[in-house]
Structure formats: C-alpha cells, structure tokens
Predict the structure of pyruvate synthase.
Amino acid sequence: MTTIEIRWHGRGGQGAVTAGEVLASGAIIEGKYALAFPEFGAERRGAPVRAYTRITDNPNIPRTPIENPDVVVILDRSLLKKEYMEGLKKGGYIIANTPLKPDELIKKIDLPNSYNVSTVDATSIALKWLKANIVNTAILGAVIKTTNLIKIDTIIEVLKNRFHGKIGESNAMAVKEAYDSTLVMKLQEAI
C-alpha cells in the first residue's frame, strides 16, 4: 500500500471532520497508519469546511493540506462544482452526496472522463436514520464501497465506540444503507 490521500468538502455541521477521523481510526484498527485533520475558514455552521485524511503504511505522515488527492469526497450538494475537484489525480475518485447517477453528475458539472465517480443520496439516508442533515456516516458507506480501503465492519465498530446506544445503531444503519445504495462508475466504464 502506498499513501492514499482524501480531501473532504462539506459545510460546518455536516460532519466532514468527524468522517475523516472515523475513517482514520478504522484504518489504524486494521494495522495501517493514518492521520485526519481539518482546515477551517469561518468557524460557523454552514460555512465551507475542508478536512483531510491520509492512510499509509508509513509511520511518518505529513500534516499538510492535501493539494493532489487520490479521493475527493463532497458532502454538500451545493459544492458539486469543478473547482472542488481541483488537483484530483488522474484516475482518482470523486464520491458525491447527490441523487444523480454517476454519469449524470459527470454531465452536470462537465467532468473529464479521467476520474472514477461514485454517488449516493446521503442526505436522504441521513434524514431517514439520523433525522438530521448530518451526512458524514452515510458518506462513509460510499467511501468504503468505492475505495475498499477498510472493511465496513471496522467502520461500524468505530462508530459504535464513538456514538453509544441508539445513536451508534442509527449511524451504523446509515453506513450500511449508503454502502448498499452507492453507485460506482469506474473509469473504464466512463470512456
């Protein structure tokens, strides 16, 4: 394994920072090295937020912003714009919270056919299980299905340790439903 770099784009209150931390915790449980950290502008609910996660087999992990990610995760539909894909490596992954199918998203934001694209309606899943537009756990299901970086059971274990009781169960159900309903379009399918 080399280093996998993930850049998360969301809005304050949607859980982008928590999603990055949960993914990193799961990677560590599975014996990898990982680091997650946020980048905040205006710290208020609804303001754009960036978070970063690095997963690697190297214990020396830089704590610098990720400019050329392997994966871009978009938690908020209003951020489904080309500018948020900047720097994404050719052959990288775009994982988006949208009811659109991957090919529809590619057309909508005029993406080149050089990325793998996954979509999931994380908002509907979050509203169903969490009764709030906190899409982080739903989007984690999509990240796991798309990247296979870690096992879904590991993410569920981390969530249940972090959120106890009914909240942990609801988050686990959101992850499972998102995992099952994520549509993945690999690069060769897009060409």
About this structure: The longest strand covers residues 48-56.
